């Protein structure tokens, strides 16, 4: 069987669902998943649909062409269609913290993640042994004030030469530039170690300690040019108390960061996230 | 506008979604919500759909008739269609505990619940003052070993004379009989004060204390003839520690019971629950 | 038996615990609870201790006098000693939202709260019927731009004439003045409907909606002159999704507000909260 | 500085806290942590205390001897005293599942765990490469029906020759015998992949799926001779829905298992757990 996933958003009009499901039925597809959402405030319709087609008579490219002609243009849809045959390619950016890296590679190794990791990039060499253990190519691209532009060029070449679909900043401690962000819009996933929008910026655990919060959090979001202000994909929290030192907050937070980032990656890789107006619609 | 909600389940076959959405489109309906689920193990298709129709040209009864002829019979669907014009009627059964009663009536009063409460039934008089405060008729129907059948007859008459749609046992401390259950299948909602299936039966907080669990729970489920074994609608939990006495567990548990029961009632009243094979599909 | 609760904080020095527990032993007290905390960063020692004394031979006032002479002065302690014989008196300030009021009065009625509520104050008359139902005196003190000072005088007179120990703002929609705050330092408990420090100020659910957060929260804190910046007593959160409208966020948030405020009140009334440097130490 | 941790339980009598804290003060110790708990139902007193002593003038062995003579015998205490200088030695038993192993070794590597792992034992060879990557000796001890006794002898020799303090079954798929359990009472930590006491025994995720629960859990407990019935150290849960297949439950559960087991190990290794009457007192 050939499975495709369709993501659509457009102005809400009567008859869209019927038109799309009819189109699938005419092409002999069997709908195995359909979810939709209407943002009533902005009158925007969102839909995610999975459909199976019999192998021999189906071409994803032909389907796309007809879909565009018959439906997308008519309803002025923004749309994406993915074949399940092609796993998304994810580039992993890290610095010195290893907990998210271990967690992701452990999941990757066990087959939990529906994606490929062609390489790991880091501005430090510290985590190379972990990459080696998991037999994933590791590229050391140092970043200094003076070499920032040059380093980014190298990153871009790597990304393009491997046809990378999306980038994960697994506690990568450099700010990525607008150039990279524009090349990969809503395709760079960051993990921020606080419950955003509380504690934007550096050292959120220190700020949480100072404020005396009773709950800490982690947030995974798409990177936009405004710091820590991109569309939120996933958040989770944990209860803490006055007995937690900053180090204890950091240790507790690591567990949140790992799970929140892993969940965000899974949602993205399984094409379950749509972005509109700096917010996400998650069809989970 | 006239809004209807359609719930369907049947064997999974290609073309169901297209057929149903087409049918709606032909009737000039605008689909504002659609969610579906396929139980792959049993090959059962579930769907929930909300659609709006222009007032003047629409009759729910006519729609039902045509729906049955054109779709339901063809696909051998189990189906229900509800008009948003008719709020479900809920009978509230209580005994002596007041926390769920206060909570539900507070929500009812504030307009949070999309339902009507024509009356409250109790086997004790203790909670009558609360019913009076909220100006809801209160029927005292005592239940003893010898009067159980007779009491149930009175309950049934009340339920039928008010066209009750579903029953909520808000810590009602009597076991309801098979006769009542059969008259209201998957329409009697109970709140059990444990994380089922742990601690079935009486005194679950005592059992939780004895076992030394670190988390307690509450479970709302439909009542079936087997005790505490009906389809689960909603569950929630709270962390506890060795410092909790049984009384402290009970106090903590009350907050869970209130929220879990209220959520289950909202899901049911908003027609978001389907039952199949003693499990629920919740379209939330 | 006569039970007292002692709360102490002072610079951390060797021998404090031994000195205090010895003192209790010499007075024939039996320690039934002892918890302590050392803030290593600031070198501050905190202790909470409960002790039982035989009725006939014990006077709380004498105990306090000796405690001060023998221990408190020596270690330069800030200290408070409470007898369990005297329940704290709580004034309840409300405006138009009724959910926290219903919740608190339901708990009060069922004996869950270890305190007295001599009266309810409101700047509106809307919730008077609820106060009447629960037979608690209700004082309507309107607040307008011009009458703010005068209204506050009336509030202060009420508070003083009833020997109120602490004040709870149960969604009271007026900002209390520095004068009131200074009279009741760390004795005015507010419920803020967000996960502070995210979304300080008015309309936090609107801000949460706009930011697209996946979790909402509620925070109970002591009121200080800086808005929503006082010591945090309790926080809790709930998961939400893109399907939540602002109204749905508000409804979901109400459940958080109720529980978080009730828990904060219980902690305060049971003398389990100490404040230092705008943060709380919670001995739960 | 020399830090020791004292754990005590005995019948509750007046003056215990004062006697112990006095004893510490006389020995020139500075108490940096003290928590106690009284089980009122059984009249048992529990205490955990950390104290620092100046290096030169302190011997843990001498302290133990005097403590026994002066205090322990007098109050008939069960007691344990640990020096912070000696990290506990943990043996890791695994089979084929790798998620807990990766998680624990990642934490171990990053210095998060206050313990030593002298070796890993497995009844299969599958996970040897992971042990090799982390440079921890791996012992393959196959277990079959016929070789069970012999295999256990080998395990015991390994454990004894390395002076192992406690054993962790990180999804070890063999039932350990009464002999091993008796040698390591309340020193064998298991992770069970359900919210005990729900779903005791094999295949709990299958049972959870069948029952249609809305929450799944994981439980870490000490191993006793009765299956899955030992004292519970830590539990956690996650919300699930009807959309979860058994495989999805298993994947979601893995994250719970990792965190719950890691937390239980930290509590045990930091001497924060006391066991009485098949329940735990956790001084966290």
Automatic annotation (TrEMBL), chains A, B, C, D:
Residues 5-86 form the ACT domain. The keyword Acyltransferase does not apply. Pathway: Purine metabolism; IMP biosynthesis via de novo pathway; formate from 10-formyl-5,6,7,8-tetrahydrofolate: step 1/1. Transmembrane segments: none annotated. The active site is at 228. InterPro entries: ACT-like_dom_sf, ACT_dom, Formyl-FH4-Hydrolase_C, Formyl_transf_N, Formyl_transf_N_sf, PurU, PurU_ACT. It holds the Pfam family Formyl_trans_N. Its EC number is 3.5.1.10. It comes from the Bacteria. Keywords: Hydrolase, One-carbon metabolism, Purine biosynthesis. GO terms for molecular function: formyltetrahydrofolate deformylase activity. It is an enzyme of class 3 (hydrolase). It catalyses: (6R)-10-formyltetrahydrofolate + H2O = (6S)-5,6,7,8-tetrahydrofolate + formate + H(+). The keyword Hydrolase applies. Catalyzes the hydrolysis of 10-formyltetrahydrofolate (formyl-FH4) to formate and tetrahydrofolate (FH4). Belongs to the PurU family. This is Formyltetrahydrofolate deformylase.
């Amino acid at each position: 069987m050939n499975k495709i996933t369709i993501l659509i958003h457009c102005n809400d009009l009567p008859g869209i669902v019927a038109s799309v499901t009819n189109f699938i039925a005419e092409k002999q597809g069997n709908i195995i998943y359909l979810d939709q959402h209407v943002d009533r405030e902005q009158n925007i319709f969102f839909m995610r649909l999975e459909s199976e087609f019999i192998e021999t008579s189906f071409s994803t490219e032909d389907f796309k062409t007809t879909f565009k002609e018959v439906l997308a243009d008519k309803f002025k849809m923004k749309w994406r269609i993915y074949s399940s045959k092609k796993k998304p390619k994810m580039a992993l950016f890290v610095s010195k913290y290893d907990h998210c890296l271990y967690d992701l590679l452990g999941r990757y190794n066990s087959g939990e993640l529906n994606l490929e990791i062609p390489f790991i990039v880091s501005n430090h060499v510290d985590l190379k042994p972990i990459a080696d253990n998991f037999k994933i190519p590791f590229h050391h691209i140092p970043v200094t004030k003076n070499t920032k532009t040059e380093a980014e060029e190298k990153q871009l070449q790597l990304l393009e030469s491997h046809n990378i679909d999306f980038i994960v900043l697994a506690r990568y401690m450099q700010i990525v530039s607008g150039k990279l962000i524009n090349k990969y819009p809503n395709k760079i996933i960051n993990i921020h170690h606080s419950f955003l929008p509380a504690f934007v910026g550096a050292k959120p655990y220190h700020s949480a300690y100072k404020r005396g919060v009773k709950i800490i959090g982690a947030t995974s979001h798409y990177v936009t040019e405004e710091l820590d202000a991109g569309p939120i994909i996933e958040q989770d929290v944990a209860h803490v108390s006055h007995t937690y030192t900053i180090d204890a907050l950091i240790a507790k937070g690591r567990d949140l960061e790992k799970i929140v980032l892993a969940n965000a990656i899974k949602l993205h890789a399984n094409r379950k996230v749509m972005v509109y107006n700096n917010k996400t619609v998650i069809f989970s």
